[in-house]
Amino acid sequence: MATAQIQLPLPVLPTGWSAEKDFKSVNSLSTPVHREIEPVGPHFLAHARRKRHKRTFSEDERIQAAENVKKVEDVDDGDISETEDPVMLQRDAKDWKNQDHYAVLGLSKYRYKATEDQIKRAHRKKVLRHHPDKKAASGSNEDDSFFKCIQKATEVLLDPVKRRQYDSVDEGADREPPSKKETQKGNFFKLWAPIFEAEGRFSKKQPVPKLGNDKSTKQDVESFYDFWYNFDSWRSFEYQDEDVPDDNESRDQRRHIERKNNNARKKKKTEDSARLRKLVDTALDLDERIKKFKQQEHAQKNKKRIEKEAEAKRAAEEAVKKKEEDEKAAKEKEAADKAAKVDGKKAKEAAKNAAKKNKRVVRGAVKDANYFATGDASASQIDSVLNDVDLVIAKIDNEELAALTANLNGKKDASAIKGVFNEEVARLKSAGKIKDGEVKSME
Amino acid sequence: MSEEDGPASRVAIGLSFGNTNSSIAYTSAEGKAEVIANEEGDRQIPSILSYVDGEQFQGAQAKAQLVRNAKNTVAYFRDFLGQEFKDIDPTPCHQSAHPIEKDSQVAFSIQDTESEDVSTVSVSEITTRHIRRLAVSASDFLGKTVNAAVITVPTNFSDAQKEALRKAAADANIEVLQFISEPIAAVLAYDARPGASLSDKVVVVADFGGTRSDIAIIGSRGGIYTVLATAHDWDVSGTKFDDKLMEFFAKEFMKKHKNEDPTKNDRALAKLRLESEAVKKALSLGASASFSVESLSGGYDFTNTINRTRFELLSTQIFAAMTRLILQTVEKAELDPLDITDIILAGGTSHIPRIANNIKNSFPEGVNVWAPATKSDAINPSELSARGAAIQASLIADFEMENIKESCEPVVTVTPHLKHALGVLCISGDVAQGKFQPLIEADTPTPIRRTATITTPREGGDVLVKIVEGSRHIKVNKVENPAKANGATAKEADSDDSSEEEEDSDNDEEETREKVWHVGKVIAELAVKGVKKGGKVEVQVDVRPDLAVSIIAREVGAKGGVRGSVEAPKLENGSA
Ligand SMILES: Nc1ncnc2c1ncn2[C@@H]1O[C@H](COP(=O)(O)OP(=O)(O)OP(=O)(O)O)[C@@H](O)[C@H]1O
């Protein structure tokens, strides 16, 4: 074998690839298939020489070799054996149009599904049994009529055009749709799936969608019925032509027959379309999934509506509540503000009044203390003490004033009163509010 | 067999023994296989024996007796040999001696002596007589007594059938060195031609004979052949064309002679058949052929002509069925038409040009269809079996019988075949992923060694050799009609009459199918380092019979290289 040339380049070694001696064994080959090579030709001789070289094979090896080998010749798997109906064996071949071609070949359970290969094998099987020469040998006097039936069946079924024509009217493959009553007992899918499968044989489009089951999606179910309402059928009815024009008739006669046939075929085709449509209608009607989807859709819609309404209601209620709350809060705030205002005014006034009263008490106290004089106080003495009192009052706030007033309260003794003032002035001095010598009368 | 029949005294030929025809071939001293003509000059000798007043006729002379002496003429008997009567299909013998049951075997009731007595002759005896005659023809031609042969048989010939044939031949003093299957003989006949290449091939052999059609799909790897699938069909074959022509000429005849239906009269029917077959053969060469029979029916002579087109119209269904049969068999082998490299048409019916042309049209463009109509250097399809047998005969003529037998035993012939293709990953254009390049195809028998040289990236450097399994998939692409795709430019060129064409090509979706590889299991990785700029890497993969693999990779021209091996897969249990 010459060396092959590969023009595509090898990949660059990925970075990080490493292996001992640059070789990595990863997997073994897949398990091989044992096949027989043909013991023919010069290259086989070389193979045999190599294989047999200086060795004898054990019995075991021989048995294994013979057993493991993959067979290529077909073995009759008995898939086309049916018992023959004695009535069928009596059929007259002249009546071939009315014979069940599949039954004649023993293929009743396959029918339109029978492969070309199956038909051929079935034919051969039948020939082996029913050939007139076989009958003669077995001494039976059966005529070769059934053999002719076999030949006719094979002729029809092996001709793709004739086979379609026959399959179009093969009642053996027809399935009677179940009644409404029957279906309503349940088992819709089990009852109807084979009906649609059988009808599907006429479809130009293959594969035909399946009926499915109660778990099928809405989309699948919809496209299933869509398919059937747009069914494109190859079914035709020439097999049932009443008259077949033959060469011996006149042209006009032939035309007449052809026209008659054509009309009959058309009529049957129309009827068949109507039949199928009705069948699909019935199925659709009985298909619980359709109801289920409708209900679901309905429920879905309802659910949405209810949800929406509830939501609206809740929102409205919330809005009202919020408004009420807001209003209430506003009112409360207003009231509070107002109250606070009033209170403040009162307090201020009270404080003012208290301060006035206190000032009066403070000023009264110096008068009670005879302006700190012994004997009658001179006008300048009175003036200076009152000035000092006013200065002290000016330097202190209302609270300090109240405290001062409280200290003076009940004190009649001049020196006690003077002591209170002296203390107050000393406090103010240490607080830095009054300087030395500023209030001479109270130091 | 007598003792002196050792290799030294052996004169061996190739023998093709069909239900319809037989032929004999030998390999010349120069190693060229040639088919021998008998005394009448026929290379296709009808497998027919006929007895007239105790005299035996064979071949064309016997065939001629089908008209006058049908009941003493034995034809189409090969498949009966070694079978029980209940298992045979007597249909082909409709117009010759009918098979009868004798001791549950097959026999014929014929008057084969001068006496009036009818004797019952077993199919085995008939076969012996037929082979004896063939051997005489061969011996006369070669000038020495032929005593051994390689005989071709269909792939579905049972051991019982082979044994019966071996015995029948032995009774004719012919030692059967080996039975080889007909399709393999055909492949061998082509592969033995000087200059034939032994590249990996998947060959379809379609053998269209007289009474049956046999298809075989054969993997061919370096001259080793493996049958991957077969099909046998008795419903499409050469005689079906004769039937069509008979029907046609009978009708034509009855246009002139209304009340003379030639199909209702055995002798007329026989004449009709013989002449129809002759017309069919003539139409394989010429564009028209004439039909001429003296006193066809009711004493009327009949001549007529038919052209090839008419014949092809009558036979469309048969042609279609033949093509279907091939495609179905390809499918049975789990292959696709894209996997097929060659189609060899064998058998006499393969002379019909339309068959080859139709098959060619149903397969991808590059497929070689080996038939006279499609290849000028095709071998005569009627001769393939005999030639292949003669080649094999010359290969083994010097071996002891014991030796030949042992080589044909399953312990030698049953061989593990690769389940998947084995190849290497390369880089292709824009795709970053690797692209599988097969080194060894699936269905290749082991042991097998393959070598390839592979280019490296432009700059050379370190490269990775990744050995992987690959499986072939068929990718179906739907493409719009190419005419439509090119529509824009076409329209500009001639805008006048393009509208009509466009309508035709509307929604004309075309399907193109292509073979693509899916990468499977990684078997091994090797690094080849420091490859020179522009250098190439040589990879050698060696699969042993136990499926262990050893691999060597090196830069072309360099010494040493990287090597390693991968263990054999574990045996699946259940095989013990
Ligand atoms: N040139 C030709 N053109 C058309 N048909 C031909 C030609 N030559 C031979 N045949 C047909 O080929 C058929 C015989 O094929 P072949 O010689 O391969 O027979 P066979 O292998 O014995 O067949 P089988 O075993 O299937 O009966 C006959 O039907 C014959 O008419």
From TrEMBL, chain A:
InterPro entries the record matches: DnaJ_domain, DnaJ_domain_CS, J_dom_sf, RAC_head, RAC_head_sf, ZUO1-like_ZHD, Zuotin/DnaJC2, Zuotin_N
GO biological process: 'de novo' cotranslational protein folding; regulation of translational fidelity
Keywords assigned by UniProt, alphabetized: Chaperone, Cytoplasm
Start-end of Basic and acidic residues biased regions: 294-351
Source taxon at top rank: Eukaryota
Main location: cytoplasm
GO MF assignments: Hsp70 protein binding; ribosome binding
Locations listed in the record: Cytoplasm
Span list, region Disordered: 123-142, 241-274, 294-360
A Pfam family reported for this protein in Swiss-Prot or TrEMBL: RAC_head
Annotated protein name in UniProt: DnaJ-domain-containing protein
Species of origin: Tothia fuscella
Automatic annotation (TrEMBL), chain B:
Keyword ATP-binding: yes
SUPFAM superfamilies according to UniProt: Actin-like ATPase domain
Molecular function terms from GO: ATP binding; ATP-dependent protein folding chaperone
GO cellular component terms attached to this protein's record: cytosol; nucleus
Keywords assigned by UniProt, alphabetized: ATP-binding, Nucleotide-binding, Stress response
Residue ranges of the region described as Disordered: 478-516
Pfam families hit by this protein: HSP70 (PF00012)
Sequence ranges of Acidic residues compositional bias: 494-511
Gene3D superfamilies per the UniProt record, alphabetical: 3.30.30.30, 3.30.420.40, Actin, Chain A, domain 4, Substrate Binding Domain Of DNAk, Chain A, domain 1
CDD domains: ASKHA_NBD_HSP70_ScSsz1p-like
Transmembrane found in the keyword field: no
Name of the protein in question: Heat shock protein-like protein 70
Source species: Tothia fuscella
Lineage: Eukaryota, Fungi, Dikarya, Ascomycota, Pezizomycotina
